[in-house]
Specification:
Blueprint: E1 3-6, E2 11-14, H1 30-41, E3 49-52, H2 58-62, E4 69-71, H3 75-87, E5 96-98, E6 110-114, H4 119-129, E7 138-144, H5 152-159, E8 163-165, E9 172-177, E10 191-197, E11 200-206, H6 218-226, E12 237-241, H7 247-255, E13 260-265, H8 268-281, E14 288-292, E15 303-308, E16 313-314, E17 317-318, H9 321-333, E18 334-345, H10 350-358, E19 362-366, E20 370-376
Parallel strand pairs: 3-4, 3-6, 4-5, 6-7, 12-13, 12-15, 13-14, 15-18
Antiparallel strand pairs: 1-2, 7-9, 8-9, 10-11, 16-17, 18-20, 19-20
Helix pairs in contact: 4-5, 9-10
The chain binds S-adenosylmethionine.
Length: 379
């Protein structure tokens, strides 16, 4: 829902993305307000700001006249910022939105860090950024107190420099960090682990922001045990929806080596990880595509099989809205007779949703925590 964000510098019309009339949440929080207040009250003038993890443009569009570089791992955030820029008649060239994997090339005199939920992502962002900062850089971080990692100050001090916390304001807090040359430790944030599927040892790769990047998720593991019973051999096009590191899709391709396969996720780091997991097992295969998009929006050919371990939160917002969107889009993209297979926590009640949408839903397997459900698209 579009709402007016009046802050210490400007007024903006902002909405979260994708736009939904049922979404009543506002597209900024008190930490955004506090960060902007700090910038507005400072006597300094900056030439080259970088903003990390701005969700819907509250920070980057407020500062658009400074042409900020904006980093986000979320395709939905990229789209939300672009959409909100258009609504506020801000030229898209005013704000350059990159992913956490993009190479940086300039030095920055202002860093505004919206502290991410994931501490590994925070460390990766700090180590990538550090070479582009100088002792004159203003470095300010902010977040809602309930979302801040307990080790935040320690992490900022280890990777950037001495840090001081501000007073709390509307349940948000800012942190001011001195860029202290020489304090960063470089390390690769790409994780990998090995797992076994049909007697083959496979390697899964995961960048910092990727689900289950260090070991197989227990729900995914259960679905892998039952993958061979799904008759994937008949499929021509299989989709790994919300692919994360791509283990479901790679294993589906081991069962059916002829089908084309699409990996899709809204996280740039997830899709790049899935690509690495795939390339390790299938270095020479061509019939694969990797798509960063919202749910199935980037899939242009019909699918016979869609495999999905849906997310139950987007950043700090918990709920089954994304799963529901994934299920609805799956029904649209499936051929008649094609099937969506879902693994989920049993308390999420996906069974009811799938039955309502597809008119059928079969329980493939379950354990104390999870259910594997399969819904088939009928005529
Ligand atoms: C529970 S994880 C499953 C990852 C992987 N399939 C596995 O089983 O390990 C859910 C995935 O959905 C992705 N996701 C969240 N919102 C999405 C959206 N709107 N469109 C596509 N993928 C999304 C997340 O980035 C995450 O990788």
């Amino acid at each position: 829902m579009m709402k007016t964000f009046s802050n210490a510098i400007t007024d903006l019309q902002l909405t979260r993305y994708p736009i939904s009339s049922k979404d009543t949440l506002q597209a900024w929080d008190a930490a955004d307000e506090y960060l902007i207040e700090f910038i507005a009250q400072s006597a300094k003038s900056w030439q080259n700001p970088i903003i990390l993890n701005d969700q819907w443009g509250a920070l980057s569009l407020t500062l658009h006249q400074k042409h900020p570089t904006v980093i986000s791992d979320s395709f939905l955030s990229h789209q939300g910022i672009i959409h909100n820029a258009q609504v506020n008649q801000i030229a898209s060239a005013d704000v350059s939105v990159l992913t956490p994997l993009s190479e940086l090339s300039e030095s920055y005199d202002l860093v505004i860090l919206k502290v991410p939920k994931n501490n590994s992502l925070l460390i990766e962002q700090l180590t990538r950024l550090y070479p582009y900062l100088s002792p004159n850089t203003t470095f300010v971080s902010g977040g809602m107190i309930k979302h801040l990692p307990p080790t935040l100050i320690e992490t900022l001090e280890q990777f950037i420099g001495p840090t001081q916390a501000s007073l709390a304001q509307k349940k948000a807090r800012l942190f001011h960090t001195e860029v202290n040359t020489g304090s960063a430790i470089k390390k690769s944030a790409l994780s990998s682990y090995k797992f076994t599927f049909l007697n083959q040892t496979l390697t899964a790769y995961g960048h910092a922001n990727v689900f289950a990047r260090q070991k197989l998720d227990i729900g995914t593991r259960l679905l892998l045990q039952h993958l061979p019973s799904l008759a994937l051999e008949k499929a021509q096009h299989i989709v790994d929806l919300g692919c994360g590191n791509g283990v479901l899709g790679v294993c589906a391709s081991i069962i059916n080596t002829d089908a084309s396969i699409s990996f899709t996720d809204e996280s740039f780091m997830a899709v790049d990880s899935a690509k690495r997991t795939w390339q390790k097992r299938f270095p020479n295969r061509q019939n694969v595509q990797f798509i960063v998009n919202d749910c199935l929006q980037g899939i242009t050919t019909e699918a016979d099989e869609i495999l999905c371990n849906p997310p139950f939160h987007q950043q700090h917002t918990v709920g089954d809205q994304i799963a529901w969107r994934m299920f609805k889009q799956a029904k649209q993209k499936l051929v008649t007779g094609g099937a969506l297979t879902v693994i989920g926590n049993r308390h999420l009640n996906y069974h009811m949703k799938l039955k309502r949408l597809f008119g059928n839903c079969t329980l493939i397997a379950n354990d104390r925590k999870f259910v594997i459900l399969r819904a088939t698209k009928s005529l």
